[in-house]
Amino acid sequence: MVPITDGAGVGTGLIIDGKLVRGAHGLPRRFAHLLVDPRGPRCGYGHRGCASRYLMSHVILRQLQNCTTYNDAVERTRAGDPDANRIFAEAGYALGVLIGHTANFLDPDKILLTGDGLPLYEIATEHVHNGIKNTYEDDPTLIDLDVQPFDFDEWARAAAALAIKDTITGNI
Ligand SMILES: [Zn+2]
Questions:
Q1: pTM for the model
Q2: What fold characterizes domain 2-19+27-151?
Q3: Suppose 52 and one of 32, 39, 147, 148 were both cysteines; which one would form an S-S bond, judging by CB atoms 3.0 to 4.6 Å apart?
Q4: Which protein residues have their CB within 5 A of the ion that is ligand 1?
Q5: How far is the CA of 53 from the centre of ligand 1 (A)?
Q6: Rounded to whole angstroms, how far apart are CA atoms 133 and 139?
Q7: Contact between residue 111 and residue 2 where contact means Cβ atoms under 8 Å apart
């Protein structure tokens, strides 16, 4: 299974037989920088049109005037604001591209989507699936996408459990 989290940052990992697999240098840190559009705007690392440039909640906020919180941006989109709708559509497409690349590369049983930026999926479902369709090289219905509401308490518990485990095993 591959979890993908979206919010202030974009995270991923690989879970095999219930265990989180680490790479040679820890968890992948640059997943959000996969290419979405070679003509797109540059991210803070100088990449043109990478997913982070569309997806992260602070990037979404920065593009909307007089919008201070992510919830404001979500509300504005739901109220039909055309700029907010375009920005969330682009973000949804970028998320779909990440999901498509993940499925191309790993063919997991399941892709679990969660994070405090999850309203993006609800708002831009069609664009997420367009991104998947344009990226995934096989039949998109093969992808088992499990969208899980974000629960901060559960998230914090899981992070604490991992930290405790790493401390006990010396794997810091
Ligand atoms: Zn980038």
A1: 0.87
A2: Nucleotidyltransferase; domain 5 (3.30.420)
A3: 32
A4: 33, 43, 45, 47, 50, 52
A5: 7
A6: 8
A7: yes
- Ligand 1 centroid to 68 CA: how many Å? 23
In angstroms, rounded to a whole number, what is the distance separating the alpha carbons of residues 123 and 126?
Answer: 8
* Per-residue buried b or exposed e for 64-89, using 16+ beta carbons within 10 Å of the residue's own CB: beebeebeebbebbeeebeebbebbb
Q: How far is the CA of 124 from the centre of ligand 1 (A)?
A: 22
For the chain, the structural domain boundaries read 2-19+27-151
* Torsional sign, CA 147, 158, 94, 62: positive
Per-residue pLDDT of the chain (172 residues; tens, 9 = 90+): 999 999 888 989 899 999 989 889 887 888 999 999 999 999 999 999 999 999 998 999 999 988 889 999 999 999 999 999 999 999 999 999 999 999 999 999 999 999 988 899 999 999 999 999 999 999 999 999 999 887 767 666 666 666 676 667 766 5
Alpha carbon distance 129, 96 (integer Å): 6
Contact between residue 98 and residue 51 where contact means Cβ atoms under 8 Å apart: yes
CB 81 within 8 A of CB 115: no
Alpha carbons within 13 angstroms on the beta-carbon side of residue 139 total 2
